[in-house]
Structure to design on (1085 residues):
């Protein structure tokens, strides 16, 4: 086979193979557990090198082998999947390296590293799959790993319930996804190999627009579940109960982007669908970007702030894709560019949060931090760089990625007024991003330490510093690769007036100033402002009562009673039917066993009766 | 290798070793010597048969084809396994047991090669006579009763076969197979032959002896009676009935077999549900399996019998492994009772035996990837290809019923406990284990080599 194809398969196979090895090694002897981290990290580094090998050697490699029924398996390598696979393996490598230090004292670290390795293999499989069936299997595998890793500290009741919540909420999305795939299968069966990515991309324009829109909307449901888009975003903030490295790896940089990747992968399905599917993608993205921003402002848990920020930024990526769909432009490169920049900066922010938690003994409330810039300068500097990149302060990479999306939405709204509100939402979202980011940063870094742990904080060991430095550098300078990236993935060019281009930057400055007034210099009190906002504040603080609706109304009032009704149906109707059949057979058997009298004369009579019966049948049929 | 003697040699080797056993009894009465001789003879015959596996040769009396050779290999293999598992037998006159084992197997080998009603009858009777005596070994009230019932019904069936043969001769003026006639006498002879050989195959309603004989005789003998002896009858019936389907009679013959197979399957499976004795349950399941085996006759007139004829060989391999292994495993419980409660806690007491027996029961129930699944799969597939999909549904439903009583045994072995000791010895365990491993390995291998089972039956019209 072609070495390129082999290396393409090895990219995701290698971590998958390492999973049982690491797990068994730790099980056999507790002394070997210390090798788990380095082993996992090096395996993923090899995956990164293989991805790089594909990047320099091939642009489009498609390999499909017969699998089962009329499905194939294989790898689909194009600029989109190569860039994703480089990002996933690279960021995963850095986070694994950080985790060697962060998880160093955990007694079950072999389990942790085995599971993250399995996750990375699954995620690379998601990225490189050539077939939606294979894609779905890997998609479920990363969902499983997410569940396992959120509940990694299972002895914490919060972690256990958060893991369940994440699993159940994403399951809702997965049901929609599998329905969408069924629609795709039904529509594409006439082109042979129905769920192959190649078939879908090449033949989308032959398919009925209505069916494509239905499939697209259902698949968007799956993407929304995985990528935490409104209204299925509720699981990510709870998922922060897992180890911080897990949050960085799975719930910031890689797995949550799988939904975005899915929409980008089958972009032609949306392009050739009825327009409402595109508007759905656009407005779900834009609204989530805005909504999550408002919730980020009122959180006090450092990881939850970052979680809402992740949701908001994923909204930007989805909105960028939606813009392209609505305007029939190829905006994948803009969306994926933001995805990659976000992976860097969010991994950076999460890892620096992890470093803070590491020194502060897992205190996550930002009100108990403060003055950390002096105590742990490298970490907080890294966090500062991450914050600047997140808000899109020039010349960081965030400026090139996020403001591009906002400008693009303005540009496209010139011809299509329907996009105008998306531009507004995204613009306000940028402002909100600035406020919550710098609220967090000022509270954590400035002022004086507000707890005993914060007074005695210090920078973590080098193995955790190195990934922070690398990610900081990437976040700062990745902007210069913008044009190269666009030309690699697909050119988009547009121009907007200078004042529109400057608008997000002005809002960023304004946001930083407001955050400074409230949290930096403390000239205004945030608490009294919150009190005066009244109902608006409590609405946001309660996360718009979405969790309440899902848990207390839908789950408790509807699902529980439905489940009870179904269980009654199952117990009395289904089981009753089955038991009746069983009883009927037993009664029959009680009769038939009487044929066995144990008397040989009866047996002989039976033989003769049988013979005579066949003769009679022959006579009746008239052949004898 | 085209001399007739080359093809007859394996059977003659078995006969010769059978006679050696008798003479050996003048030297010693120790059971293991006779077991060695039987194993030696079996291995020699096995090798000689392997040399013939691709050869085809026929004269008016015998037809040597691959299907016959495969069945003969199975018979000899099972005989070797039985001889191995009875290594620790300790009863008087071991030479009788092993000598009859060899002679009956030799007769069966000749019977599956026969293509003339006279040679069929002679070899069939030779094997029957040997098995009548085997069923009564070692001498006890129970085995004598089993043997007596077997003999009475066997004698009745032989007379029916003779009737059938005479009608055949009257209508076609020959004893050779392959000649058909449109006369009503010909169909009469077919009915008589079907009833006569159906007794050996334990088809409903000629099955009753089988239940008592399989339960009453010693387990290794039951293993022989319920597998080799049955498959011999099956092969004979295939050789006779394969010619009846191109002469306007196909509809009637097919109808008879459809009725018989439905009744046999359903009767065997349903009655097995309420059996509390595992050996008796296996006897009923053996009747049910005879129903599956007789499905092949319903497909022969359909669209191309190639798949059906390949499937029946695969099912035969599966059947001889799983049913033979299950009965041999029951030998462990002969002394202490074969009720289902007596198997409680086998999983803890004898893990290897329990595991092997579980695999064999799974195979009988038709759970993939065992050989039993493959046999049923290809058989039912050929039913569907022959447009008998409704019969396939009945067969699958029957197969589903059977899962219940097989799994009940597994449940008792692993989830129930008892303090009762279990007798038996390691030789039985190894014999059962080897059969269960073969069931698994062949089950995985068969889909790859199914192609080589096509066109192995000689004399297809």
């Amino acid at each position: 086979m072609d070495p390129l194809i082999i290396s393409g398969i090895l990219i995701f196979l290698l971590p998958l193979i390492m999973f049982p090895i690491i797990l068994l090694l730790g099980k056999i002897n507790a002394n070997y557990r210390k090798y788990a981290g380095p082993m996992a990290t090096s395996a993923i580094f090899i995956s990164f090198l293989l991805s790089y090998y594909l990047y320099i050697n091939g642009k489009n490699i498609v390999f499909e082998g017969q699998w089962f029924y009329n499905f194939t398996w294989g790898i689909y390598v194009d600029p989109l999947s190569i860039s994703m696979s480089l990002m996933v393996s690279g960021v995963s490598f850095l986070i694994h390296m950080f985790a060697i230090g962060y998880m160093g004292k955990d007694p079950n670290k072999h389990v942790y590293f085995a599971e993250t390795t399995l996750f990375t293999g699954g995620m690379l499989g998601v990225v490189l799959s050539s077939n939606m069936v294979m894609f779905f299997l890997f998609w479920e595998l990363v969902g499983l790993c997410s569940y396992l890793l959120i509940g990694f500290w299972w002895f914490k009741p919060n972690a256990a319930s958060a893991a369940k919540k994440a699993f159940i909420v994403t399951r809702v999305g997965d049901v929609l996804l599998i329905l969408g795939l069924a629609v795709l299968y039904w529509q594409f069966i006439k082109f042979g190999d129905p769920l192959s990515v190649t078939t879908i991309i090449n033949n989308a324009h032959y398919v009925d627009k209505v069916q494509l829109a239905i499939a697209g909307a259902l698949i968007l449901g799956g993407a929304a579940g995985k990528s935490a888009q409104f209204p299925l975003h509720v699981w990510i903030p709870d998922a922060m109960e897992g180890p911080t490295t897990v949050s960085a790896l799975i719930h910031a940089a890689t797995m949550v982007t799988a939904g975005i990747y899915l929409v980008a992968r089958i972009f032609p399905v949306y392009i050739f669908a009825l327009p409402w599917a595109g508007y759905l993608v656009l407005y779900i993205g834009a609204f989530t970007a805005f909504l999550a921003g408002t919730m980020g402002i009122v959180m006090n848990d450092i990881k939850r702030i970052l979680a809402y920020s992740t949701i908001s930024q994923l909204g930007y990526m989805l909105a960028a894709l939606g813009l392209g769909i609505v305007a029939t432009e190829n905006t994948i490169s803009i969306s994926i560019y933001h995805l990659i920049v976000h992976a860097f900066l969010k991994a950076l922010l999460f890892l620096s949060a992890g470093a803070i938690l590491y020194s502060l003994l897992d205190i996550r409330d930002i009100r108990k931090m403060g003055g950390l810039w002096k105590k742990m300068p490298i970490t907080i500097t890294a966090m500062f760089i991450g914050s600047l990149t997140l808000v899109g302060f020039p010349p960081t990479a965030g400026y090139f990625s996020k403001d591009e999306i906002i400008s693009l939405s303005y540009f496209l709204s010139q011809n299509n007024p329907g996009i105008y509100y998306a531009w507004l939402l995204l613009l306000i979202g940028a402002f909100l991003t600035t406020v919550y980011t710098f609220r967090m940063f000022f509270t954590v870094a400035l002022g004086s330490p507000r707890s005993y742990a914060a007074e005695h904080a210090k920078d973590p060991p080098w193995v955790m510093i190195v990934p922070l430095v690398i990610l900081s550098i990437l976040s700062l300078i990745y902007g210069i690769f913008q044009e190269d990236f666009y030309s690699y993935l697909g050119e988009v060019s547009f121009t907007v007036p200078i004042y529109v281009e400057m608008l997000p930057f002005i809002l960023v400055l304004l946001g930083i100033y407001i955050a400074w007034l409230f949290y930096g210099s403390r000239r205004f009190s945030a608490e009294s402002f919150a009190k005066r906002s009244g109902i608006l504040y409590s609405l946001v603080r309660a996360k718009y009562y979405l969790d309440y609706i899902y848990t207390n109304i839908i789950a408790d009032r509807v699902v529980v009673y439905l489940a009870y009704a179904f269980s009654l149906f199952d117990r009395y109707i289904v089981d009753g039917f089955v038991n009746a059949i069983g009883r009927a057979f037993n009664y029959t058997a009680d009769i038939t066993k009487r044929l066995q009298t144990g008397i040989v004369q009866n047996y002989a009579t039976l033989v003769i009766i049988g013979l005579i019966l066949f003769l009679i049948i022959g006579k009746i049929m008239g052949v004898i | 290798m085209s001399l007739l003697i080359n093809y007859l040699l394996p059977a003659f080797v078995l006969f010769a070793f059978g006679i050696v056993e008798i003479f050996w009894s003048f030297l010693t009465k120790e059971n293991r010597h006779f077991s060695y001789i039987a194993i030696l003879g079996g291995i020699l015959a096995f090798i000689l048969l392997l040399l013939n596996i691709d050869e085809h040769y026929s004269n008016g009396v015998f037809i040597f084809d691959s299907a016959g050779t495969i069945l003969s290999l199975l018979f000899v293999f099972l005989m070797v396994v039985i001889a191995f598992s009875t290594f620790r037998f300790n009863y008087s006159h071991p030479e009788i047991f092993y000598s009859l084992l060899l002679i009956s197997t030799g007769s069966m080998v000749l019977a599956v090669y026969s293509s003339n009603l006279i040679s069929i009858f002679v070899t069939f009777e030779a094997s029957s006579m040997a098995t009548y005596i085997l069923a009564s070994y070692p001498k006890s009230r129970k085995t004598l009763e089993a043997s007596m019932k077997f003999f009475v019904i066997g004698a009745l069936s032989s007379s029916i076969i003779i009737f059938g043969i005479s009608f055949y001769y009257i209508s076609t003026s020959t004893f050779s197979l392959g000649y058909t006639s449109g006369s009503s006498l010909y169909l009469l002879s077919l009915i008589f032959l079907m009833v006569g050989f159906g007794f050996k195959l334990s088809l409903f309603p000629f099955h009753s002896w089988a239940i008592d004989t399989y339960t009453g005789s010693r387990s290794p003998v039951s293993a022989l009676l319920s597998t080799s002896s049955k498959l011999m009858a099956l092969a004979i019936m295939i050789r006779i009935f394969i010619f009846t389907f191109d002469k306007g009679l196909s509809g009637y013959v097919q109808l008879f077999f459809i009725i018989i197979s439905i009744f046999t399957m359903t009767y065997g499976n349903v009655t097995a549900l309420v059996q509390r004795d595992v050996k008796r349950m296996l006897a009923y399941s053996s009747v049910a399996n005879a129903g599956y085996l007789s499905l092949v006759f319903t497909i022969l007139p359909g669209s191309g019998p190639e798949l059906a004829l390949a499937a029946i060989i695969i099912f035969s391999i599966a059947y001889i492994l799983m049913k033979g292994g299950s009965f041999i495993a029951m030998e462990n419980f002969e002394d202490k009772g074969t009720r289902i409660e007596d198997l409680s806690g086998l999983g803890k007491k004898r893990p290897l035996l329990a595991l092997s027996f579980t695999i064999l029961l799974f195979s009988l129930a038709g759970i993939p990837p065992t050989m039993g699944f493959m046999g049923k799969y290809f058989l039912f597939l050929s039913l569907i290809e022959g447009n008998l999909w409704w019969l396939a549904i009945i067969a699958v439903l029957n197969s589903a019923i059977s899962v219940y009583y097989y799994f009940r045994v597994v449940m008792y072995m692993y989830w129930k406990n008892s303090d009762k000791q279990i007798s038996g010895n390691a030789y039985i365990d190894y014999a059962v284990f080897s059969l269960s491993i073969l069931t698994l390995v062949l089950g995985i291998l068969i889909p790859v080599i199914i192609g080589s089972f096509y066109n192995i039956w000689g004399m297809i019209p």
User: Anything to note?
Assistant: Chain A has three domains: 1-273, 284-536, 548-621.
